[in-house]
Amino acid sequence: MKKTIFIALFACFASQIFAQFRYDGGDQTLFNRSHRVGFFVSPIVEYSDFKNDLTTATGGGIGLVAGDFFIGGYGLGTTDYGRILNEDFNQLDMGHGGFWVGFVAPQHEVVHFFSTVKAGWGAVNIQFDGNEPDYEDTFFAVTPEAGIEVNVFRWFRIGGAVGYRFMNGLSDTPSFDTKDFQTMTASITFRIGGFGRRHDRWND
């Protein structure tokens, strides 16, 4: 199931990239359709499942716009794990951050497709009730996403996406399985900044 979700998201991402390749008598490049350049900051809210309950993580990112692509960084931290913990848990915190890359097209239209991949490092810290020692471990996470974005103003865009969080590095404990952290995600991003102007070589 995880492989199927990952392949579907990757295929969607790849198809949008190759759709931009048009022949103009010269070399085809990734960035030859639109020569826009810009920069943005982005508050991020991410929802995911942990032990069959909804959890929320908040954070933000920054990115440099280059044509239909952007590259930057992100950081996310949980905000409400304490609400869902059972009698074995006193407190659980998780955060991660790293690289953030994305593809957005056709971004000159009010509603358009976008896909991103977040890849970063993080840590989990759990305080248990009783005699069990506290748990702390690090991990590496990759989260591919695909969704729809809306241009509200020239400087403000809102996007919603679904994805899947893949994780590596955590050790199991008697109280939880590390697979509990690998799950579907849903995110809302608010991109604020200057996204450049569209200068196409071809007519749409």
Uncertain runs with pLDDT below 50, 5 residues or more? 13-32, 200-204
Mean pLDDT: 79
The main sheet comes to: 8 strands, antiparallel, barrel
Assembly state (oligomeric):
single chain
- Alpha carbon gyration radius: 19 Å
What's the β-strand tally?
9
SSE arrangement, N to C: HEEEEEEEEE
From the spread of the alpha carbons, the general shape counts as elongated
Distance between the termini: 37 Å
* Secondary structural class: mainly beta
Task: Report strand order across the widest sheet.
Answer: 1-2-3-4-5-6-7-9
Q: Provide the CATH top-level class.
A: Mainly Beta
CATH topology title: Porin
Strand portion: over 45%
User: Can you give the helix content as a percent range?
Assistant: under 10%
Tally of alpha and pi helices: 1
Q: Specify the CATH architecture.
A: Beta Barrel
Number of domains: 1
